[in-house]
Write a structure and sequence with these properties.
The protein is α+β, with helices and mostly antiparallel strands. The chain contains five helices and four strands; from the N terminus they run H-H-E-H-E-E-H-E-H.
Length: 109
């Protein structure tokens, strides 16, 4: 039978293993504007990320999306500074700088 401390240790270890891959994303700075490229839009998995981007006046970048989001850019140049705020207002959980996220994945192009 496990005592409370051992259960806590196992629970903390399991939490770190499960959350570990997400820690670099959480360390990425939020997007303030999109003058330096696309943004990573994180949305709920039960929502429609394409609709969130369209409602904010943007378009997806790339061939697809994941369960939690996609890369996007504004449709018109006038939206660059307000685009992250518009995405949040449309239902995005978070809007991260796309270049920082790409660098975390090893892309330097």
């Amino acid at each position: 039978m496990m005592d409370g401390r051992l259960s806590l240790a196992w629970g903390m270890a399991a939490g770190l293993v499960l959350a570990g891959p997400l820690l670099p994303l959480l360390a990425a700075p939020p997007a303030r504007g999109v003058d330096d490229g696309p943004v990573l839009v994180l949305t709920p998995p039960w929502g429609d990320a394409l609709q969130v981007v369209a409602d904010a006046g943007g378009r997806p970048v790339g061939p697809g999306q994941s369960w939690f989001g996609l890369l996007a850019t504004p449709e018109t140049a006038g939206l660059t500074t307000d685009f992250p705020a518009a995405l949040r207002a449309s239902g995005a959980w978070a809007v991260l700088n796309g270049r920082v996220v790409a660098a975390l994945c090893g892309w330097t192009g």
